């Protein structure tokens, strides 16, 4: 798989896919998309990078272990539900903070935070499984 | 945007719960929340093997405290419910804590706390980096979630959470036998959850709801509550949860896998996982589908007897101590199923009490096996011996555990067996009572043999009797309090429940009443309106 | 429509049971993957099928104007797909590791955890 063409293209392709995955994640509130799909796209980006340049390169690029990413996602996903404790509402009740920037209304909310959490959980879990599989293949 | 909806003008009260929620009601979700946050934090700090046990122990202690608070509140105020996201039931996912769920959740968290302590000694740096503590805490999220949820599909989700975490635990260390055991464990459990999911889909097709209280209310209004569809669902559920609980004939995965992982992981599994299956059986068959249970009572009784007898016979045929205990877990499951088969108030109370007892005693036995391994250098009773001479106090503790698991007085195993035998006799199922007593007798033989071989005789096979210390070079210096404290806590609870069973009588009777008379459960979810 | 889908689900179940009865681990895993799909389809079918009307509420309204497809089974199926997908990924890794370590994917020969010639327990005291 490590042809010259693939190895040259893979970093750009991966970067593009990660960017697209963030687009899909943020778009997910009112249109098709969301944390799970976005996370899968990002994880496949990492997998492609791993196939082309080796697992070690991916781990270096990630800085943290993928499972730590998953832990972080789980953490903020859970905390997003806890916020409603302070507003005397049941667990996971959504809170909305609409902000207007340059005449565009952006609805910041706990579901958004939760979705970002899902994104990280999926990226972390799937990437660590994919990397584990690729690592075995090379030896 | 054409006419945006402003939330101020719209009346949401038909779909959402707008009343403020008391902070105390958050106790219903607190166990799950604490374990999820704790698991996440432990996952992020996985590499820091020194700080991790302390962090995890803080979260596990919080978990015990939250479960204790929840149980006190449930006993004080009755069943409490919180519906996620503020939606009204049955639209939102409900978490409903009754006496049964809260009791089991508390006992489970105590066991997890003990396992956290014990694991600080037996799980080395590699095991911690592989994620022993994160998975243990996340396992508790699944276990507590399963005990406290009030929604069948959500029950499925929590089952999967605990299954994923248990996968992580069972392959901790990646030994050959572990991978072998994990394959069997994983495949069988995945098939079991798929069967559970089929039943859940059919429940939704019949009732159009997945909320347990809603189904319980709707099924009692049904004319033909034992129709073919519902019986099919009942049989599917029974098979699925019997797989989880390791009942005969789908019990073979348990002795094939439970002895492979680190001993503390075996202890947690033996204590908790099968009991979640039993809990689900009680919840589904007594609360939701009592007619199916009545119809299937004889089948359940036969399964219960077969489970008890195969369990103890399997235990008698093993030389490996951990596998002996693995089969004893199965025998205990049979006793709980016997309670489900009889189905009277006393029988269900007995099954609940037995579940609590079994959680405590099976965990303690596996932990004791770990200590035996550290003292004698082996799990095989042929190669063990002379442990009484090495440490008489530990031999005494093991004897207490052996008595308790066989159901001998004055320990915690005695009372639930009395209740179950009494219930079976008054239901006219003398043979069921006989099977319970027979399995108790054979259990005594199996653990008695472990005691005689590992503790009482002078030394391992081949050495002349009278050598006080095992010759296999095992270390006797196990003065670490982190090993003794968990075994001590569990043994103290076993002795306490044996001498003062009133606490458990009361708890299990309230738990049983809560599922046999679902009115309180339904009202907690839907309010006092019928 | 429902009948047709029911027949397809039945076929899926048959295939998955056949594969799961195989001795080879990889085939069993394929069977489990197909089992998951058939279960998901049966949940979908249990929510009743409604064609061509997506469950989307028009802008400015609070309730849909006509009978729409049932969104709940879709949510359930999505959850189930996610879970069974991650399980399947995990089991694949596990099976591969087991194959490397044990050296066979024939489950009859995977006897590391339960050795075949286990000695009988001591008969006397």
Residues in helices of chain B, as a percent range: over 70%
| Tally of DSSP helical segments of chain B | 21
- Euclidean distance between termini CA atoms of chain B: 42 Å
Mean pLDDT rating of chain A: 86
Runs of chain B in which pLDDT lies below 50 for 5 or more consecutive residues are: 1-8, 470-476
Series of secondary-structure elements of chain B, N-terminal to C-terminal: HHEEHHHHHHHHHHHHHHHHHHH
What count of helical segments of chain A does DSSP give? 5
- How many strand elements of chain A? 2
Computed structural class of chain B: mainly alpha
Q: Spell the H/E element sequence of chain A.
A: HHHHEEH
Beta strand % of chain B:
under 5%
How much β-strand is present in the residues of chain A? Answer: 5-15%
Low-pLDDT segments, ≥5 res of chain A: none
Q: Sheet bearing the most strands of chain A, described?
A: 2 strands, antiparallel
Largest binding interface between chains: B-C, 50 and 46 residues
The main pleated sheet of chain B reads as: 2 strands, antiparallel
Radius of gyration of chain A: 17 Å
What does this structure look like?
The complex is a heterotrimer of chains A (139), B (530) and C (125). With 139 residues, chain A is mainly α. Helices cover 70% and strands 9% of the residues of chain A. A two-stranded antiparallel ribbon of chain A has the order 1-2. In chain A, helix 1 (4-27) runs antiparallel to helix 2 and helix 2 crosses helix 3 (55-62). Chain A is elongated and about 55 Å long. Chain B has one domain (23-469, 480-514). Chain B is 72% helix and 2% strand. In chain B, strands 1-2 form a two-stranded antiparallel sheet. Chain C has a single domain (2-51, 69-107), classed as Orthogonal Bundle (Helix Hairpins). Chain C starts with a helix and ends in a 23-residue tail after the last helix. Chains in contact: A-B, A-C, B-C. At the B-C interface, helix 6, helix 7, helix 10 and helix 18 of B face helix 2 and helix 3 of C. Chain C: It is a multi-pass membrane protein.
């Amino acid at each position: 798989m490590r042809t010259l063409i693939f190895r040259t293209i893979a970093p750009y392709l991966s970067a593009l896919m990660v960017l697209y995955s963030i687009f899909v994640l943020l778009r997910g509130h009112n249109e098709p998309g969301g944390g799970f799909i976005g996370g899968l796209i990002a994880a496949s980006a990492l997998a492609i990078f791993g196939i082309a340049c080796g697992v070690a390169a991916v781990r270096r690029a990630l800085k943290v272990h993928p499972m730590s990413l998953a832990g972080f996602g789980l953490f903020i996903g859970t905390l997003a539900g806890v916020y409603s404790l302070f507003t005397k509402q049941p667990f996971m009740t959504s809170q909305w903070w609409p902000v207007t920037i340059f005449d565009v209304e952006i609805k910041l909310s706990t579901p958004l935070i939760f979705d970002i959490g899902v994104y990280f959980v999926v990226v972390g879990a799937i990437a660590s499984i994919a990397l584990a599989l690729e690592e075995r293949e090379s030896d | 945007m054409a006419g945006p909806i402003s939330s101020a003008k719209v009346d949401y009260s038909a779909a959402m719960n707008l009343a403020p929620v008391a902070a105390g009601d958050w106790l219903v979700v607190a166990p799950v929340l604490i374990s999820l946050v704790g698991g996440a934090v432990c996952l992020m700090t996985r590499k820091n093997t020194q700080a991790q046990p302390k962090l995890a122990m803080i979260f596990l202690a919080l978990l015990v405290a939250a479960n204790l608070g929840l149980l006190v509140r449930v006993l004080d105020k009755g069943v409490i419910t919180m519906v996620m996201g503020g939606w009204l039931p049955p639209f939102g996912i409900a978490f409903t804590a009754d006496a049964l769920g809260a009791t089991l959740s508390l006992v489970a968290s105590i066991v997890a706390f003990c396992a956290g302590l014990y694991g600080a000694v037996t799980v080395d740096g590699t095991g911690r980096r592989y994620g022993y503590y994160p998975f243990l805490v996340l396992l508790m999220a699944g276990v507590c979630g399963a005990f406290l949820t009030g929604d069948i599909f959500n029950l499925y989700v929590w089952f999967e959470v605990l299954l994923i975490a248990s996968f992580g635990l069972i392959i901790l260390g990646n030994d050959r036998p572990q991978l072998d055991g994990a394959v069997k464990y994983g495949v069988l459990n995945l098939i079991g959850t798929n069967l559970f999911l089929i039943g859940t889909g059919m429940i939704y097709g019949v009732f159009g709801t997945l909320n347990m209280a809603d189904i319980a209310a709707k099924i009692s209004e049904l004319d033909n509550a034992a129709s073919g569809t519902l019986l099919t669902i009942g049989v599917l559920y029974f098979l699925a949860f019997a797989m989880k609980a390791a009942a005969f004939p789908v019990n073979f995965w348990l002795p094939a896998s439970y002895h492979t992982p680190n001993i503390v992981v075996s202890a947690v599994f033996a204590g908790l996982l099968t009991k979640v299956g039993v809990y689900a059986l009680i919840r589904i068959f007594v609360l939701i589908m009592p007619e199916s249970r009545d119809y299937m009572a004889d089948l359940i009784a036969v399964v219960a007897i077969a489970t008890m007898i195969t369990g103890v016979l399997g235990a008698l045929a093993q030389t490996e101590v951990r596998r002996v205990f693995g089969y004893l877990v199965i025998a205990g499951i049979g006793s709980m199923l016997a309670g489900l088969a009889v189905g009277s108030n006393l029988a269900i109370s007995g099954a609940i009490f037995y579940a609590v007892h079994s959680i405590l005693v099976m965990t303690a036995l596996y932990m004791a096996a770990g200590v035996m391994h550290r003292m004698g250098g082996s799990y095989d009773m042929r190669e063990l011996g002379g442990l009484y001479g090495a440490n008489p106090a530990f031999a005494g503790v093991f004897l207490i555990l052996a008595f308790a698991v066989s159901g001998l007085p004055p320990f915690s195993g005695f009372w639930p067996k009395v209740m179950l035998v009494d219930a079976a006799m008054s239901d006219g199922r003398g043979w069921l009572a006989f099977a319970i007593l027979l399995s108790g007798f054979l259990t005594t033989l199996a653990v008695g043999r472990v005691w005689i071989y590992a503790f009482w005789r002078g030394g391992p096979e081949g050495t002349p009797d009278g050598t006080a210390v095992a010759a296999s070079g095992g270390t006797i210096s196990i003065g670490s309090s982190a090993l003794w404290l968990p075994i001590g806590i569990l043994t103290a609870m076993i002795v306490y429940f044996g001498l003062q069973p009133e606490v458990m009588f009361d708890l299990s009777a309230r738990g049983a009443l809560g599922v046999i008379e679902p009115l309180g459960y339904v009202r907690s979810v839907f309010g006092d309106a019928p | 429509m429902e009948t047709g889908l029911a027949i397809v689900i039945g076929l899926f179940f048959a295939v998955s049971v056949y594969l799961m009865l195989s001795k080879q681990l990889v085939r069993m895993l394929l069977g489990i993957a197909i089992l998951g799909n058939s279960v998901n389809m049966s949940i979908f079918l249990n929510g009743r099928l409604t064609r061509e009307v997506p469950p989307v509420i028009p802008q400015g309204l609070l309730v849909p104007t006509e009978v729409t497809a049932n969104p709940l089974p879709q949510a359930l199926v999505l959850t189930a797909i996610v879970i069974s997908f991650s399980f399947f990924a995990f089991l694949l890794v596990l099976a591969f590791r087991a194959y490397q370590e044990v050296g066979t994917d024939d489950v009859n020969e995977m006897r590391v955890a339960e050795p075949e010639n286990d000695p009988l327990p001591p008969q006397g005291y």
